[in-house]
Design a protein that fits this description.
This protein is an alpha+beta fold and about 160 residues long. The protein has two domains: about 70 residues; about 80 residues, Alpha-Beta Plaits (2-Layer Sandwich), CATH 3.30.70. About 55% of the residues lie in helices and about 20% in strands. Strands 1-2-4-3 form a four-stranded antiparallel β-sheet, with helices on one face. A hairpin with a 4-residue loop joins β1 and β2. It is rod-shaped, with a radius of gyration of 36 Å. InterPro entries: bHLH-TF_ACT-like_plant, TF_AMS/ICE1/BHLH6-like. This is Plant bHLH transcription factor ACT-like domain-containing protein. It is found in: Nucleus.
């Protein structure tokens, strides 16, 4: 007799927990169990939707990363062109190290003065500068400046 009462009390506690989880207002055991099964089914559907959304986000991330790899600039690129006032030096390379300091040291060693410069190092290092010879005796050679700046970048 006591065991039967204990089982009945345990079943009542379980039904009470199911009623709370499913927000059921019913007092009948059968309808509480049906509502619990429906609740579990809805949870499964929500879980599947979340899994699909996660798979879509992973695919978008993968596509974004592949596009970023395609857009990456070459490891190093140095272009020197003649401009109105002197030479236009354009440098693009990977970010890191003291590249700007090295390039400025090269300009100083070659006797070049910077008239105007722009530097960016958000995703990669980029510099654009207009340089002229410090004195008339220093000749501006495109090839020698290109080689010197390239060596300065490689030292880093």
């Amino acid at each position: 007799m006591v065991a039967r009462l204990q089982r009945r009390a345990a079943m009542g506690r379980r039904l009470h927990v199911l009623r709370i989880l499913t927000c059921s207002k019913s007092a009948q055991r059968k309808s509480v169990i049906m509502e619990a099964l429906l609740y579990i089914y809805k949870l499964k559907l929500k879980l599947e939707a979340i899994k699909r959304e996660l798979a879509n986000l992973v695919a978008i991330k993968r596509e974004y990363l592949s596009l970023m790899k395609q857009l990456q600039l070459p490891k190093k690129e140095v272009k020197v062109e003649k401009a109105e006032q002197g030479l236009l030096v354009r440098v693009t390379c990977e970010k890191g190290g003291d590249k700007l300091v090295s390039i400025l040291e090269v300009f100083e060693e070659m006797g070049l003065v910077i008239l105007n410069a722009r530097v960016s190092s958000n995703l990669y290092f980029a510099m654009e500068a207009i340089v002229v010879a410090d004195q008339e005796q220093h000749a501006l050679h495109v090839k020698s400046i290109t080689q010197a700046v390239t060596k300065a970048i490689e030292r880093q």
